[in-house]
Amino acid sequence: MTDAQETAADTSLRTTGGAPPDDVAPAPIPLLEPREGIPPVVASDDALARVIADFAGGSGPVAVDAERASGYRYGQRAYLVQLRRDGAGSALIDPVGCPDLSGLGEVLSGSEWILHAATQDLPCLREIGMTPTGLFDTELAGRLAGFPRVGLGAMVESVLGYSLEKGHSAVDWSTRPLPDPWLRYAALDVELLIDLRNALEEELDRQGKLDWAREEFDAIASAPPAPPRKDPWRRTSGMHKVRRRRQMAVVRELWTARDQVARRRDISPGKVLGDAAIVEAALALPPNTQALTALPGYGHRMGRRQLEQWQAAIDRAKALPDTELPQPGQTLAGPPPPRAWADKDPAAAARLSAARAAVSELAERLYMPQENLITPDTVRRVCWEPPKNLTPDSVETALAGYGARRWQIEQVAPLLVGALAQTA
């Protein structure tokens, strides 16, 4: 048993992560105001230069957060960036007024950035010139430490004993000027991130998982930007109802037309035309705008010009030759869905069943979600096509080839060797 397993199993030490504490925690203290008040919004080059100087003169890690306008605007750009650092205080920066924050990114290079759910904010921060060289993800730290709820509010409450007001998380952050209650909420999001980071580091160290967390953080910081999705129209909600290739072509044409309109108007695609309406039109294949109007999502509120626009997309799909119609499904890389394994390869199905049981049992002992211990896709791939020469080294090499971190390999490889050997 590793140090982490021993520590996680010791319930007498468990006061935050790992499992619920024995005693009932006191009621959280509402955090209503930032300690220095709401910072002024930085929206000019001169004000940004002062913030850069302040943060260059600060010390220690930097708490970073970003607010987007998901559901309101096209894309995932940042509409507010919040930072806090010892010696510099807090700052609220408007990326609309200051679209290039590379100067700030440079002075913070080499410092540890603290983010909550870092992979959500890093793409929009990268767009404005801010990319960390090292980070601490408080959400991921909470997962590794075994907290049952890892949202920022839940973590601040369970670890630090404060409650954050979360009522403005889904507002339209592209609004200008931003109301004071929203700015207060935004400033409070970074108010305690440094304290939370320090407490979680201590908890991870106590559980013997701190080195594991550092490997995960390094992997996030060094990961390249995600490539563009292939055929993003296939992710339309309700796509499973669309069976025929001609109908799929209608989805593709409507999705593409909607995306062009949304991009041009800088508005969320869902506000231009809902996914459900796209699927309805694909299933019905309306012959004209009158028939289109009768479908859900194309009612009396939609203008004639819009109806003609969508009908034109439908007509384009209907006119395509068969050779240009999309294929029924994307070619999947890797093994088939597990539900098909019993028929296709019963031995592989037995391997997967044994491996899943072993991984699940270890994850439970470590008080950690299975997907953080090892990704389910990695387990499937190794079980579907195990190394021809089954040895600990060959399994470790296979796991590394699928992107598993060193600590994951150390924990999981022996389990997989045993599961694969049982069914060899």
Secondary-structure content class: alpha/beta
| Major β-sheet profile | 6 strands, mixed
Total E-strand runs: 8
Nearest-integer average pLDDT? 93
Helix amount, in percent? Answer: 40-55%
How far apart are the first and last residues' alpha carbons, in Å?
26 Å
Approximate shape: flat
In the predicted model, the low-confidence regions spanning at least 5 consecutive residues are 1-15
How would you write the strand order of the largest sheet? 2-5-4-3-6-7
Output the radius of gyration. 25 Å
Q: H/E element string? A: HEEHEEEHEHEHHEHHHHHHHHHHHHHH
Instruction: Figure out the total of helices.
Output: 20
Strand content: 5-15%
Structure in words:
The chain has 424 residues and is an alpha/beta fold. The protein is built from 20 helices and eight strands. It has helices at residues 3-9, 45-56, 102-107, 118-127, 138-145, 152-160, 180-191, 193-207, 210-222, 245-265, 269-272, 275-284, 289-293, 304-319, 341-344, 346-365, 370-373, 376-384, 392-401, 406-422, and strands spanning 29-31, 41-42, 59-68, 78-86, 89-93, 112-115, 134-137, 162-164. It has a six-stranded mixed beta sheet, with helices on both faces. The chain is flat and about 65 Å long. The protein starts with a helix and ends with a helix. 35% of the residues are buried.
